[in-house]
Specification:
This protein is 52% helix and 12% strand. The radius of gyration is 21 Å and the shape is globular. The chain is built from 14 helices and 9 strands. By secondary structure, it is of the alpha/beta class. It has helices at residues 25-34, 50-54, 63-69, 80-86, 92-98, 111-123, 137-142, 153-159, 178-206, 211-219, 226-237, 246-262, 268-285, 293-306; strands at residues 16-19, 39-42, 58-59, 72-75, 102-105, 127-130, 133-134, 145-151, 167-172. Helix 9 (178-206) packs across helix 12 and helix 13 (268-285) packs across helix 14 (293-306).
Length: 307
């Protein structure tokens, strides 16, 4: 493996690693493979790798194989516990895996966790870039995600061009930690906006309004967005097939609240929405789309009727 500092980015035809082929990771990796990126992929549940194999990616049988064959490894994993497990953090295998590599974490983790992981990777002779993405499954399938980048500028410069098949935009956010803070800021807006949209749809429904007219009123006005165009039809149809899971939204609101407290700030709108996402999870909707926050609002209305 040649010295990473000898070149500004990936060499033509260089194999790139991709670990984590879940709701978001699988379409992201497929976009890379279909764009001609030579991928070596691995997933804890092997069946998720089948579409990647069909798209021309090499499928590793163990995660070590991904690191042996590649210099840059992207990880799209559900949380920090899984990330630690996959990287064998806290064991001698960790340094062996990450040394000489650029490790790119594309999931959403607490900023402090990311800073700690970065320090350990650097100490082990590797480099680290945090690259959380904004967007749900549909933008992931369309290659329309937005990646927020944090880390050492040279490492970020090497990784950034590789993200083009997955992302319509990459935004530089500064040192490690800042990209994840930016993601939390974006998610604060997303989670509170979707809860407000669900409540508005519920209000219209409870007042006997034609919901197709409600959709037309929103989509022809200043509040129209990709979010309203995708989510209002789901809310009307009661279609909660997952694009971004309710459990993930609830986890995100917890991370935002934690970061807000660390900064010594209030987050009143976020805190109420966090309760609603939590209530929807308690109702059994954790793996449904986050628009199932509507179910928590409906349950509160039903409770009012009983009181």
């Amino acid at each position: 493996m040649s010295n990473a500092s000898e070149r500004p980015g990936a060499e033509p035809g260089e194999e790139i690693g991709f670990v984590g082929l879940g709701v978001m990771g699988q379409p992201m990796a497929l976009n890379l493979a279909r764009a001609g990126t030579r991928l070596v992929v691995w997933n804890r549940s092997p069946a998720a790798a089948d579409p990647l194999r069909e798209a021309g990616a090499a499928v590793a049988t163990i995660v070590e194989e991904v690191f042996e064959r590649t210099r840059i490894v992207m990880l799209m994993l559900v949380n920090e516990a899984v990330l630690d497990e996959v990287l064998q953090r806290g064991t001698p295998g960790f340094a062996k895996l990450v040394s000489g590599h650029i490790v790119v974490s594309m999931g959403s983790n607490p900023p402090d966790y990311s800073r700690g992981l970065a320090a350990e990777i650097v100490a082990a002779g590797g480099r680290y870039v945090e690259a959380p993405v904004s967007g749900s499954r549909k933008p992931a399938e369309m290659g329309q995600l937005v990646s927020l980048l944090g880390g050492d500028p040279e490492a970020v410069a090497e990784v950034r061009p590789l993200l083009a098949p997955m992302c319509r935009e990459t935004i530089l956010c500064g040192p490690v930690g800042n990209a994840l803070l930016m993601k939390l800021a974006v998610n604060l807006y997303l989670c509170t906006t979707l809860a407000g949209l669900a409540e508005a749809a519920h209000f219209a429904s409870q007042n006997g309004l034609d919901l197709s007219r409600f959709q037309a009123a929103i989509d022809s006005g200043p509040m129209a967005s990709d979010l309203t165009r995708v989510k209002i039809p789901k809310l009307i149809a009661g279609d909660f097939s997952v694009q971004a899971a309710t459990a993930d939204a609830f986890n995100s609101t917890n991370l935002i609240a934690q970061a807000a407290r660390t900064a010594g700030m209030a987050s009143p709108v976020l805190d109420l929405c966090r309760e609603l996402y939590g209530e929807s999870v308690e109702l059994g909707n954790g793996r449904l789309d986050m628009s199932s926050v509507l179910k928590a609002i409906e349950a509160r209305t039903a409770a009012l009727g009983r009181s």
